[in-house]
Design a protein that fits this description.
It is a single chain. With 249 residues, the protein is of the alpha/beta class. It has one domain: Rossmann fold, CATH 3.40.50. It is 31% helix and 18% strand. It has a 7-stranded mixed β-sheet, with helices on both faces. Helix 1 packs across helix 5, helix 2 packs antiparallel against helix 5 and helix 3 crosses helix 4. The two termini are 12 Å apart. 46% of the residues are buried.
């Protein structure tokens, strides 16, 4: 087991690349860091592309393979699916989701856990549900928890988002942590292209990326550190540039 460990908890295949691409690459390229991904669904309620890459019935299996390909490109060490139905996470008891997330925490012993900001960036109910369940899992883990920091990944209001504005953003003043790694933009673009069935969404959010234009592939990811003592998350005057800042090995 490597000295430093990060667990990302998301709802669908492609969430990892859309939200945290350069961050994953940045830490995956550090020899003492391992990256693990817990994905709640296989994204079977999504579109199979236009023209379709596969049938709707084949979509969950294809998207699983796409995620594994993207994970390999980004440098993720392990991917686990929770096995829930796409677009149904909000109907699953939060305690049930949290218990499965705690199982992953026990297995991987991450010091850092990352999930969606509560509004989910896009407002997707699955994003919101997995965010709430992840916080619940971390807060209720107990005194032997390995988790030292929980982060919400978000999008800063002042920044562009391709040719669309996400429904929900957070002011730059609320951001506690910025991970900037422009050297990995091309790698992230390759991971985006691996999600072939989602080419419509990829092209909408990252115009031109499937044609080799990385202009809209974000070279900086934005995070809000969660205060786990029920205090509101507030930005320090000095923003972090390392998720492991202050973490005890």
């Amino acid at each position: 087991m490597k000295k430093k460990r990060i667990l990302f908890v998301f709802a669908h295949p492609d969430d990892e690349t859309f939200t945290s691409g350069v961050t994953i690459c940045h830490y995956a390229n550090q020899p003492d860091v391992s990256i693990h991904l817990l994905c709640a669904t296989r994204g079977e309620a999504g579109k199979p592309g236009n023209p379709p890459i596969c049938t709707q019935e084949e979509l969950p299996f294809v998207r699983e393979k796409e995620l594994m390909q993207a994970a390999a490109i980004l440098g993720i060490d392990s991917v686990e699916f929770m096995g829930y139905v796409d677009k149904q996470l909000s109907h699953v008891p939060a305690e049930e989701l949290a218990a499965k997330i705690q199982d992953a925490i026990k297995q991987h012993q991450p010091q850092i856990v990352i999930t969606f900001v509560p509004h989910g960036i896009s407002g997707h109910p699955d994003h919101q549900a997995i965010s709430a369940a992840t916080r619940l899992a971390v807060e209720r883990f107990g005194p032997d928890t390995p988790v030292q920091k929980l982060y919400y990944v978000t999008h800063a209001t002042e920044k562009t988002f391709g040719d669309m504005a996400p429904p929900y953003t957070d002011p730059l003043s609320s951001i506690t942590t910025l991970i900037s790694a422009p050297q990995y933009v091309k790698q992230v673009a390759q991971a985006l292209a691996a999600h072939r069935t989602q080419h419509l969404s990829v092209q909408r959010v990252f115009p031109g990326v499937l044609q080799g234009d990385t202009t809209y592939v974000r070279d900086t990811n934005y995070f809000i550190r969660v205060h786990l003592d029920d205090q509101p998350a507030t930005a320090d005057r000095e923003k972090e540039s390392d998720l492991f800042a202050g973490v005890l090995a």
